[in-house]
Design brief:
heterodimer; A: globular; B: 70% helix; 0% strand; globular
Chain lengths: 596, 135
């Protein structure tokens, strides 16, 4: 079983509760050890709050004006936690020599355990980010990264921190007032505990006030506790014969592995020798077959729902999801058809990339679940009849498990659509897409095995990927609703995708967004950027005519460059004018504003 | 189907065999693609066969001895009246024939790039035969 953030959080809570529940006064030398462990614990809590992006005076005016964000309380809590940690740290450094050697006191041990668990949990969250080599800024490296700092999840995290602070602060204050006769601890220890406890109390109160203003939604807690480390799960060997629960677990694990390798590959796609048509074609094929098998599975579950007496609402969701899955197969099939003509040229000995390889496993797992042949493969000889509904889902519990596995598989297709779209778009921008000359008409007498792909082919391919992303996102959203309605194990995934409620300060994450770490050219921006303008129209048009004469290409390129320069200048001028206009703009009085 | 078999069997040299292989792989792709929607249980089989045929065709394209320039129009593999079993058997037979011809060509090819291309294409042909073999 893979560890999730909730495991660390629960252990930390247990440690804190155990520490503050210890009865009796603590000897002076134990207090020194307690201060050291409190230093670690409170410092870690302060770091958690420091990691969370909060609304501040540097944020957008809209965020500042929104009174519901609770940003001020969180900022004040952050400051108070830092002060508490500073007080404890100075004392811990100066009293380090007073800490008794040997077996630590149970209170110190509980606090040490809690601090370690919290630090490990924070490390787990940080596996989803990496520093940008150029700017040092935090860069998302997984699909979960966008979820971690969504408002609902951070609300849940701050609520946990508030709860720990509320437990620790009164206990520290009480400890500061205890005085053991003949204690080796100087009186300053009491003062330190009092001072640090006071700041911690303030932090707890601020966070509790924030939680009262905007109670953390249940979804946030659910998602927070389910966050895994950003590590690929170990592959599950195929057991023959595999049970249905075993197949479901195997499919879920494989789906997670595909998502992990897809995110990793997207980061290296620009220079990877395996960024080839062969891999993208195989991925598209696997996605089409997975979607088709998922359709078969869902159809079987739909037939099983009524005999199992499932709620009509769940049955309606099953029908909706089945309808949403059908265009997914069609969309991926269209991509495969486009790749039957297009190519990245000769790619010998480069092999399939890991995404395509893992997608192959996804096909086998989904097929084995859909069909009754336990050793199902796409080959004709292995084809078999569809599983009987009673064999696929003997009980409602089994139905939910199967549902969750297919939900994960569909979510994975969304991720693959997003990452492949990004990688293929890059290949197209780098003019790496070709068609075999033998497939051209006789009018194109071209003495090479491949010719540059006509623009219309490339556009059609990219459009097909966009359609696949759209259909996969819609199907995943349908699965989200179904999983929530049916209480399937994948309801955590659905919660992570949950759409924002009206008035939510920040938008929640959509499945397609989760899947796609936007490349720089995709950065959401309301401003026009030069990157948004398609470069090289003229040069592309010349190449589309299958002309490779250098002088023509250079002239076309020069005209394109001149056009780009002109546009850059024009955009810069437009931005300057817009800035000047906004600086001098005074909003009209509220009473004069028109309402629509 | 016969015209493709004849071209493969009677190819007088490597360039001619490569050109015939290219066209046969493309014909297999088109035929497999036309059956994808016909039998739901064989959706995966026909889809995979079509993609494998593209891979075989791509492998042939990498051979330096493949004659440059566009190929002419090709006849379709089967008539519109052909049934499922006939289609499956035809694709399997052509896969086997391509495997045999290309394996022999790889053994006699003097250019290492031609040899590698033929071996890779023969591998794709073997996969097609495996995918389309009924047990």
């Amino acid at each position: 079983m893979d560890l999730v953030f909730g495991d660390f959080l629960a252990s930390a809570h247990d440690g804190v509760t155990a520490a503050v529940s210890t009865s009796g006064e603590l000897p002076g030398d134990v207090k020194a050890g307690v201060i050291c462990q409190l230093d670690r614990l409170v410092t870690t809590l302060a770091r958690y709050v420091g990691d969370i992006p909060l609304a501040s005076e540097f944020d957008r005016p809209q965020a500042r004006q929104n009174p519901g964000t609770g940003g001020r309380e969180a900022l004040e809590a952050r400051i108070a936690l830092r002060r508490s940690a500073q007080v404890l740290h100075s004392a811990a450094v100066s009293t380090m020599s007073d800490v008794s050697v040997g077996e630590p006191h149970p209170v110190a041990r509980h606090l040490a355990g809690a601090a370690t668990q919290l630090a490990a949990g924070r490390d787990l969250l940080h596996t989803h980010f990496s520093p940008d080599p150029a700017t040092g800024a935090r860069r998302r490296t997984s699909a979960w990264a966008k979820v971690i700092y969504t408002p609902s999840v951070t609300d849940a995290l701050l609520s946990d921190i508030a709860s720990m602070a509320a437990q620790l602060a009164p206990w520290m204050m009480r400890l500061s007032l205890e005085s053991t006769p003949g204690s080796a601890m100087p009186a300053t220890a009491g003062l330190v505990l009092h001072d640090a406890g006071r700041w911690l109390w303030i932090a707890g109160l601020k966070l509790e006030a924030r939680a009262r203003q905007q109670p953390p939604p249940a979804n946030g807690r659910l998602v927070l506790t389910a966050i895994p480390a950003n590590l690929p799960p170990a592959p599950r060997p195929v057991a023959v014969p595999e049970t249905i629960p075993g197949l479901c677990a195997s499919l879920t694990t494989t789906a997670a592995r595909v998502q992990h390798v897809a995110a990793a590959f997207a980061r290296s796609a620009r220079w990877s020798p395996q960024a080839t048509s062969e891999s993208w074609r195989r991925s598209a094929l696997a996605a089409a077959i997975t979607a088709d098998s998922s359709e078969v599975i869902l159809h079987t579950l739909t037939r099983r729902a009524a005999p199992l007496g499932l709620d009509p609402l769940i049955q309606a969701h099953l029908d909706n999801t089945l309808r949403a899955l059908q265009p997914v197969t069609t969309a991926w099939r269209a991509i495969t058809a486009k790749w039957s003509v297009l190519s990245t040229g000769v790619n010998r000995d480069k092999g399939l990339n890991q995404v395509a390889a893992e997608m192959g496993h996804l096909v086998l797992r989904t097929g084995s679940l859909a069909y009754s042949n336990k050793e199902w493969t796409p080959a004709c000889g292995r084809a078999s009849i569809i599983r009987h509904p009673t064999s696929l889902a003997p009980t409602p519990h089994d139905l939910r498990k199967v549902l969750a596995a297919v939900h994960h598989a569909t979510d994975t297709l969304t991720h693959v659509a997003a990452t492949d779209l990004r990688c293929v778009r890059r290949a197209a921008a780098d003019s790496r897409l070709y068609i075999p000359t033998r497939m051209l008409s006789a009018a194109h007498d071209f003495p090479y095995p491949h010719a540059l792909a006509p623009r219309s082919h490339v556009t059609a391919l990219l459009d097909s990927y966009r359609l696949a992303l759209k259909t996969c996102t819609a199907a995943t959203q349908s699965f989200d609703d179904l999983a929530l309605a049916a209480g399937a194990p994948s309801h955590v995934l659905a919660a992570a995708h949950t759409r924002p409620t009206p008035g939510s300060p920040l938008p929640a994450v959509q499945p397609a967004e989760l899947a796609l770490e936007p490349p720089p050219e995709d950065s959401a921006s309301s401003q026009i950027s030069v990157g948004a303008i398609q470069p090289g129209h003229l040069e592309g048009a010349v190449r589309d005519l299958q002309l490779t004469e250098p002088t023509l290409l250079v002239r076309a390129n020069a005209i394109d460059e001149a056009g780009r320069d002109l546009l850059t200048e024009a955009i810069a001028k437009a931005h300057r004018q817009a800035s000047a206009a906004s600086a001098s703009y005074t909003p009209p009085p509220a009473s004069r504003r028109r309402t629509v | 189907m016969q015209s493709f078999q004849v071209r493969l069997q009677e190819a007088s040299g490597l360039p001619e065999l490569l050109a015939a292989s290219f066209d046969t792989f493309e014909a297999i792709r088109q035929e497999a693609d036309s059956w994808v929607d016909e039998v739901p249980e064989l959706f995966a089989a026909f889809m995979t066969t079509a993609v494998t045929a593209v891979e075989g065709r791509e492998a042939v394209t990498a051979a330096p001895s493949l004659p440059p320039g566009p190929g002419g129009p090709q006849p379709s593999l089967l008539t519109a009246e052909a049934g499922l079993n006939e289609a499956i058997d035809t694709l399997a037979d052509l896969g086997a024939l391509l495997d045999c011809c290309l394996t022999q060509a790889a053994a006699s090819a003097t250019n290492p790039q031609d040899r590698a291309a033929c071996e890779e294409a023969a591998d794709a042909a073997r996969q097609i035969r495996h995918l389309m073999t009924r047990e």
